[in-house]
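Handout, tutorial session.
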Amino acid sequence: MPDADRRPEATAFGNVTAMAGRVRPMSATTAETAPRGGEWVYEVGWGGVRVLVSTDGGEPTVLTRRGRDVSAWFPELSGFAEAVAGAVPVTLDGELLVVDGTATDPGPVEARLRMSAATAAREARRRPATFTVYDILCHRGRDTRGFAWEHRRTVLERLDLSGPAWGTAPVADDPDEARRLSDEYGRDGIVAKRRASTYHDRRTRDWVAVRHRHVAQLVVGGWWTAPEGTALLVGERTDDGLVHRGSVRRGVDAVPDLAVALDGLDRTESPFRGRKPSGVGRAHWVDPLLPVEVRHGGIDPGGLLTDPELVRVRIDLL
């Protein structure tokens, strides 16, 4: 079986954390459709916080994409060194997310990075993050980046990572199966990876990210002035009332006469069921009569659209 130590061209590193600090995670190009063929494999596009996690047997070091050390923000990884004891010094590439059942959510992890380390440690007990691992850059102190993805994957799978706050990302041989996994985990895309690809700290066509876009028919229940400009508060009609689906900023400026369409619909109370939408500043409520079409990446565990974009006002439905 593959072993990085048996390859004479594998460079040895004296300090695995220093090595990780000099590396930037490999990035994918984007495409509308995934490439197909036997030379490709497919993973879920997790959309989480990208990190490199390294250990030489002691407490792990967690570095963000830009090299920020956030180890103290993720105390749930404190037992990780023991899980990879036979592979140290080791550096692994992956993403941090909060897992709720089968659904995954990067939002709480992103929010934690804006907290103090002490507050983040308390948040870790309330909503622990999971390190989803999909690549290995250093194994037993030797650089594995020059090996093919297929070889690196075999080395990674031999680690048999399965713990309370870490695990190995699943892979699929077919993009349709990867899409099914993406939907199962509540994510909005997949990544195709060439089996023969080596690891580069730059964007490359050997990895191709494909976003799944959905279209929803919603109604406007209000608007507010976001830092970037006007954003619409949109909702979905259900038998139990109007369910808030999020704040849509992208695409709003491209829709002509939107202000005219909302004129005369003002109301004093929120039209949405339950609690008022949070984090939207001072909202201006309107009667939910204006139908709109919104393109998005999916629905997060909180019921909000991911990456929403206003496509058009459905004048034809008025």
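The second record follows below. Compare its token runs with those of the first.
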Amino acid sequence: MSLRTNKLLMTVGGICCVILVVEVVLLVIQGVRLSAARKGYAALCRSRERLVQRDPYPSAGNVRRVEEHLDDLSYYIGELAGELNGDPFPAEAIEAAEFSARTQGVIERFRKKAVQAGVELPEKFEVGFSRYASGGAVPEMDYVLRLTRQLYSVERVADVLVQSGVHSITAMTRDVFEVADPDTPRRRRSRNLPAARKLTQESAASWTGPGGLYYVEQIRVTFTADEKGVWRVLQGFSRAPHFMRISAFGHRTLTDIMQYSPTAVKRGGESDDEALKYLAEGILSGENALSRPERIIAGNDRVAVELAVDVYHFNPEGMDE
């Protein structure tokens, strides 16, 4: 065998050895990776087994955190319930025959407070209970609870108005729910009271909260006051011991001076209205122009205000749940 042939064989053998070494190295590396993958897979299987063998949710940590939050929430709800029931509706039972006298007593107390505070009232002011106050009607026993709650609501609203120092109270009404049911058998009753019907969920209050959590009685009132008096009324409802919410508000000035709009006043020089010319030339421009506070033309006039006040009565049993 020639020397050239031996060199060729040696070269080929060397290349094969190198390839073999590389394959062995790669095989070792892949073996290590396979071993690591098997260990990771085994760990995942063990973790899955632990999860399968225990209650999947909630975990002990979640239960502990929820219990801590529940204690905080229970404390907050207790504080809120105490504030909302700061002036609760007295739920003592009264007989139907006693309601007329109670109505008269509430109206009489209200009139005395109004006189002492200088609040003007209409000559006949029976706050939606005329059939009971002056008519002497005896309500159906099914009606007594809501009528008493409405009477209490009227008294709470009236207290706010009198304490706020309004000029006059011209009207106060409630939701009249005592209506006749044509299917109700005829019976002897007061001539001033229609035939009764059984109270339904819709007639148990102006509206009812979910699960009987609260009952809302809406009282509508019209009064007159100056601007500061109106603000005192709004603030009085917001800080009253009993929880009340103003759901509707409307007002109008009792003078026609507001028909002079600022735009019309600015064009006064182009108008034939002498008053507008005077306003435009005398107070809006020039050396004698008045400041903004001095240009108030209706701020001290009384305004007539119409309110719808929602009086909330929370059910203590429902709040305890």
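Points raised in discussion: Strands lie at 168-173, 207-208, 214-225, 244-253, 303-314.
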